[in-house]
Amino acid sequence: MEKQKYSRRFFLGTSSMAAALALVPSGIKAFYQDLKTRLLPVKSIQTLSLIVNKKTYTVKADTRTTLLDLLREELELTGTKKGCDHGQCGACTVHVNGERVLSCLTLAAMVQHQPVTTIEGLAEGDQLHPMQQAFIECDGFQCGYCTPGQIMSAVACVNEGHTHSVEEIKEFMSGNLCRCGAYNGIVESIQKVAR
Ligand code: FES
Ligand code: FES
């Protein structure tokens, strides 16, 4: 079946379809264009001002842009990962006003003028954040995809004092999923920084 999709007949079929579309009368094209404009939501572009990792950015973006997409696609801060894009994996965790948030569920427009910290903003120059260092020392990552989100949550876990027991750490960190199963190293890293 798959092979048939790319057969000579397929290419002939698609090219004749393209040729046929070119012959569609302009009145019909205009009709569909009009329909499209009526049915698709209108983009609303807004100028946003964000303070990310202590730097101020002014960007134009659709009002529906998530903080995650704005960080990755407009500001090129790709350390924050897009996993599920539905608030279920924690890969996109950043801090807003020092508190962890899921950037895939946060509109960029909602965090204007508030300090946002991403994984890129944790280190002080060449000096890694203690949690980054602990992840390295305790093998807190394997493939590393979930790591930025895990580290952002881990920092919040320590800052908010949820490190009294392994169970408490696991409960706090339960929104951050790791498909590689680096959980033991992650818990150890948090305990190390909390000591
Ligand atoms: S990408 Fe945001 S929770 Fe998964
Ligand atoms: S280290 Fe691979 S997903 Fe967590």
Automatic annotation (TrEMBL):
Molecular function GO labels: 2 iron, 2 sulfur cluster binding; metal ion binding; oxidoreductase activity, acting on the aldehyde or oxo group of donors
The source's domain of life comes to: Bacteria
InterPro entries associated with the record: 2Fe-2S-bd (IPR002888), 2Fe-2S-bd_dom_sf (IPR036884), 2Fe-2S_ferredoxin-like_sf (IPR036010), 2Fe-2S_ferredoxin-type (IPR001041), 2Fe2S_fd_BS (IPR006058), Aldehyde_Oxdr_Iron-Sulfur (IPR052914), Beta-grasp_dom_sf (IPR012675), TAT_signal (IPR006311)
Q: Which Gene3D superfamilies match?
A: 3.10.20.30, [2Fe-2S]-binding domain
UniProt entry keywords in alphabetical sequence? 2Fe-2S, Iron, Iron-sulfur, Metal-binding, Oxidoreductase
Q: Where is the 2Fe-2S ferredoxin-type domain?
A: 46-122
What is this protein's record name?
Answer: Xanthine dehydrogenase YagT iron-sulfur-binding subunit
From the broadest rank down, the organism's phylogenetic lineage runs: Bacteria, Pseudomonadati, Bacteroidota, Chitinophagia, Chitinophagales
